[in-house]
Amino acid sequence: MPEPGKNVLEVRDLEVEFRTDTGITNALTGVSFDVPRGEVTAIVGESGSGKSVTANCIMRIIQPPGKIAGGSIRFDPSDLDAFDVVSLGPKDDRLYDLRGGHISMVFQEPMTALSPVYTVGNQVSEAILCHRDVSEEVAWREAAEMLELVGITDTERRMHMYPFEFSGGMRQRVVIAMALVCNPEVLICDEPTTALDVTIQAEILTLIRELQQRLNNSVIFITHDLGVVAQLADHVVVMYQGRVLEIGSVRQVLKAPVHPYTKGLLAAIPGLAKKGERLETIASVVGDDDISTPHPLVTLKDGRQVSLPAESLGDLL
Questions:
Q1: Residue 50: left (phi > 0), alpha (psi -120 to 50), or beta?
Q2: Would the pTM count as exceeding 0.70?
Q3: Looking at the 3D structure of the chain, how many domains does it have?
Q4: CA 42, CA 304: separation in Å to the nearest integer?
Q5: What is the extent of the structural domain holding 46?
Q6: pLDDT tens digits, residue range 88-132?
């Protein structure tokens, strides 16, 4: 097998469409970006920009009336030859191994990801039994160890409890344990702190970063909170209306954004306005002409990519 490359995932020209009563809606148009191995890549943008749809494509869980209409997602696991996730048939064994084995996902609302009728121990150990040939005793023991790793104490008792007996933050820790228990190469976090209060959010973000560094896996972190991006990410992908507008390191994108939409996102971060002034919004900073016309991604001399006409970039090229 070839030596694993720098990128664990390479998304190219991804197209997703949803058939509705009024016609076909394009949810993603020409989405391309890389996920470097062993690092955190944040996908940011306002609601409806296509962040979660992109994640669902990587997991191949897009449901009708939606479908992947074009493009490729090259996945390069360390123990297998690279393959295109989009081209896998519905009964391909690699697709089964991909979901939860090679790539796992942490969803926004933990109560929708946990069954109310099974104990926490059963649900975490089931994730192991689905992907590995081990006994129930081994799976139960490893599930308890993973719960301890994500900060849940008294696991001997809590393994026999049900999700409704856990707080919101503890339930999210259980979901993270389920996602990581098979040691996936890629962990997708789809706004995992949205339903939690601010203090618990900070704990969960710290936990995800610590686990990523300990396990050395790759993380795709989907959020609209740029404060989270600054704290957690190595690379940033900015999306708007199903398109990628800017890609770069977290320092490049947050300190010196190039695309007008990225500048608008940064200007719209909540804060205290001066007396007599109003807070900025995206609409007050970015004009329709800045973001309505699609342009191919152009690579700048500092390595970042931006969706703008080349003639407008001047010395940046």
A1: left
A2: yes
A3: 1
A4: 14
A5: 7-102+184-254
A6: 998 999 998 899 889 999 987 777 889 999 999 999 999 999 988
